[in-house]
Amino acid sequence: MTLRQLFKRKYAIKILIILIIVPIGFYTKFYSGPLQKWVSYSLGDFWYEIFWCLVISLFFPLLKSSRIAVIVFFATSILEFIQLWHLPILENIRETFIGRTLIGNYFIWSDFIYYAAGCLAGYFILEAISRVKTAK
Length: 136
Known about the structure:
Elements: H1 3-30, H2 36-59, H3 65-82, H4 88-94, H5 97-103, H6 111-130
Helix pairs in contact: 1-2, 2-3, 2-6, 3-6
């Protein structure tokens, strides 16, 4: 297997995982049942972090998994603090489902726990993918 084929294989694995994670993440926003608020507001954050770790790794495949996880954690932490601002343009974005999903509505300190857990999971997923070797 050539290096190009290996990159394609790893790219395909990342896409497959993203295709699994996106519906799970969206499902957390529509879930109704026990612990509905926790699933919607907190568990969704976990999947959101993994998603962004995988997306960044698609565009920057040579970045280390640890660096990607740190970048995603800090970027989403900044987004969490932006939720404290209620500027008209931000409120317009938050009126849409995708806007609320991407930049959020409410600042919650406990979200940082789920950001960290999601980034840690993202790191381990990326590390596992990076260990995919050529078939002999």
